[in-house]
Amino acid sequence: MLDLKQIFSVTLILFAVIDIMGSIPIIIELRRREGVIHSEKATLVAGVLMIVFLFLGHEILKLFGLDYASFAMAGAIVIFLMGLEMVLGVHIFQTNTTTGVGSIVPLAFPLIVGAGTMTTLLSLRAAYSLPNIIVGIILNLIFVYVVLKSSGWLERKLGPAGTDILRKVFGVILLAIAIKLFKSNIQF
């Protein structure tokens, strides 16, 4: 049965973890590099990943003999490399503009659905009912889609200088997030 309080809680928790607003400079950079962001494809892939991980996440990690810390550290490395790209203006991720793969990697995964989102989904599963979690996921995906779709408008409003400043600042923030993820999940 749907519970508005649970839906609201799940939606806010996922919104904070996904942090699509904080990803706007990365989205703009990917759009600039790829030429286009496939908003529908990225949103659909992110939704499928979230639903699959909601139901099978624990089993998938167990199948590969992985724990949450290892998974989070792998995501941290990808985020770190993305931060380096933004700060240094270099391209580490090679893209093929004919495939639109940039809408999937690194946009849908790990930017929208990364280790934090996946781990959060498993935690939510223990505290909330599945229908409420699914509604929370759908509400977040709608917001993600709107942000992705408006990336061109946002880039025009910011202008080249504003976009460049945001890219550098958020690149440093991404590096710090990656280091924090790495530090909090390293095990000796």
Give an overview in words.
The chain is mainly alpha-helical and 188 residues long. It has one domain (39-185). The chain has 8 helices and no strands. It has helices spanning 4-18, 24-34, 39-63, 68-88, 104-112, 115-127, 130-149, 151-185. Helix 1 packs antiparallel against helix 6 (115-127), helix 3 packs across helix 5 and helix 3 (39-63) crosses helix 7 (130-149). It is globular.
Overall strand count: 0
Unreliable spans: none
Topology as H/E string? HHHHHHHH
The proportion of residues forming helix, as a percent range, comes to over 70%
What is the CA-CA span between the terminal residues? Answer: 44 Å
β content, as a range? under 5%
What is the arithmetic mean of pLDDT?
84
| Count of domains | 1
Number of helices: 8
Biggest sheet architecture: none
Structural class, please?
A: mainly alpha
Shape designation: globular
Radius of gyration: 17 Å
Record the SSE blueprint:
Blueprint: H1 4-18, H2 24-34, H3 39-63, H4 68-88, H5 104-112, H6 115-127, H7 130-149, H8 151-185
Summary?
The protein is built from eight helices and no strands. It is mainly α and 188 residues long.
Which terms would index this structure?
mainly alpha, 188 residues, 8 helices
